[in-house]
UniProtKB/TrEMBL annotation:
Protein name (record): Tricarballylate dehydrogenase
Gene Ontology terms, MF aspect: oxidoreductase activity
Cofactor needs: FAD
Organism: Thioclava dalianensis
Sorted UniProt keywords: FAD, Flavoprotein, Oxidoreductase
Residues spanning the signal sequence: none
Lineage: Bacteria, Pseudomonadati, Pseudomonadota, Alphaproteobacteria, Rhodobacterales
């Protein structure tokens, strides 16, 4: 085993948004920092390179954000999607701190653009990155390297040795050899375990083998498992995750944001038997889109099918893959492998249950609903009548898992009731401390930015 020299003050494990925020904050506090990124340089950035925006509290117009988005409204949105399964203290910390993050991000190279059109309805609540997540990641790497942060790629951490109340050393593999460093402080920001499909299957059962992984194939939970195995306090349920319904034609790994489907509110969604199974119009898309991954996971073969008509085709941001198209519903059913009689019956029953559609409004709750069918559609319920007809297959796309490291308001980890004196966590690795279930669009980037900055400052204070 090779002991690396010179030794850093701080080792940051991971290479995405949270890791970069921690590294930058620590370097600005005067610490010598090394980032250990498992991925090769072209794939650096973890899931962050697939993101588009972060959710930001603001008491008035701020950068690209309009109007205001108060702490209480933000918290209410979070409580709704999580079913109140959150640590309210940490949630409020993330929300309050987010307002100061936007100017900090701009000062460190991130640029913003006006919000995207379509069904996201986020101009007031979410700030969109110019160049997307990859633009953000690249900006932060430039900033970090200008501050003297050392970046090691293809550096796969395998073990953190904890002795009593501190991490004594880190072992990682790189270029075929095992290396060792002895930093004064450690920040873990290496994501969840979603890319380890065997672990997913242990948590979810065999159905998880049919899940697609939206993000990086490098988040396999190796560091997480190592620390949990040494008694570091855990938080979260292994069956809870940020999972959305994505295009069924997406690759197994790394399909990213372009495979997401935003058309559910303007559709009906059926299973392989041609039957509807949930209210497609329950709420505006940023608050409800994440439930559809779990809903599809519960269907036969873990697959669903979106059915829309010509008048809805331009109302949402399309997937990278074109929809299946037919002039008739029967033809669409055949193309999609659905039973034609069952699908046409389901559509006919849905159409008959639709009422007055004059109040239809695609970007807000409009109350245009069905009557007399189960499940209902409570908003945006328009008959599917205008050819050509279009369809997409849906599969569960897992973004990140919520089982993680429990942290306090200083982002510090603990064993029992005793803090590990030089160990902090940020980002998806500790997001289960706040996200008990469900998801709110852009909130993962908020958690990573806020707790990355906190962890970096605390780690530097300890090292210094």
């Amino acid at each position: 085993m090779k002991t690396v020299s010179p030794q850093p003050d701080i080792a940051v494990i991971g290479g995405g948004n949270a890791a970069l925020c921690a590294a930058i904050a620590a370097a600005e506090a005067g610490a010598r920092v090394v980032i250990l990124e498992t991925a090769p340089k072209p794939y650096r950035g973890g899931n962050s390179r697939h993101t588009r925006n972060f959710r930001c509290m603001h008491r008035g117009p701020l950068g690209p954000l309009t109007d205001s988005y108060t702490e209480e409204e933000y918290l209410a949105d979070l409580m709704k999607v999580t079913g109140s399964k959150t640590d309210e203290g940490l949630a409020r910390l993330a929300i309050r701190s987010s307002e100061a993050c936007l100017p900090w991000m701009e000062a460190h190279g991130v640029r913003f653009q006006p919000s995207l059109s379509g069904t996201l309805s986020l101009a007031r609540t979410n700030a969109f990155f110019l160049g997307g997540g990859k633009g953000l990641v690249n900006a932060y790497y430039r900033t970090a390297e200008a501050l003297g942060v050392q970046v090691e790629y293809e550096a796969a951490v395998t073990h953190l040795e904890i002795d009593d109340d501190r991490v004594t050393h880190i072992e990682y593999t790189q270029t075929g050899e095992t290396r060792r460093i002895n930093p004064k402080s450690v920040v873990v920001a290496s994501g969840g375990f979603q890319a380890d499909t065997d672990w997913l299957a242990r948590a979810w059962g065999p159905a998880a083998k049919n899940f697609l992984i939206r993000g990086t194939p490098y988040n396999r939970g190796i560091v997480l498992a190592d620390l949990l195995g040494q008694g570091v306090e855990q938080v979260g349920d292994p069956t809870q995750c940020h999972a959305v319904a994505i295009d069924g034609r997406a690759p197994k790994f790394d399909g990213g944001i372009v495979t997401r489907l935003d058309c559910v509110p303007f559709s009906i969604v059926v299973n392989k038997n041609g039957e509807r199974f949930y209210d497609e119009g329950e709420d505006v898309w940023p608050k409800r889109y994440a439930i559809w991954g779990r809903l599809v996971a519960a269907q036969p073969d873990q697959v669903g099918y979106v059915i829309i008509d010509a008048k809805s085709l331009e109302l949402f941001m399309p997937s990278v893959f074109p929809p299946i198209k037919s002039e008739t519903l029967e033809g669409l059913a055949v193309e999609m492998g659905l039973p034609p009689a069952a699908l046409t019956k389901t559509v006919a029953e849905f159409n008959a249950a639709c009422g007055d559609t004059s109040g239809f409004h695609p970007t807000e709750l409009d109350g245009v609903s069905t009557t007399g069918i189960t499940p209902p559609k409570t908003n945006w319920a328009r008959p599917i009548t205008d050819p050509p007809f279009y369809g997409y297959s849906l599969r569960t796309g897992v973004t990140f898992t919520y089982l993680g490291l429990k942290v306090d308001a200083r982002a510090q980890c603990s064993i029992g009731d005793r803090p590990v004196s030089n160990l902090w966590a940020a980002g998806e690795t500790m997001a289960g401390s706040i996200l008990g279930q469900g998801y709110l669009a852009g909130f993962g980037m908020t958690i990573g930015t806020v707790f990355g900055r906190i962890a970096g400052k605390e780690a530097a204070a300890h090292a210094n």
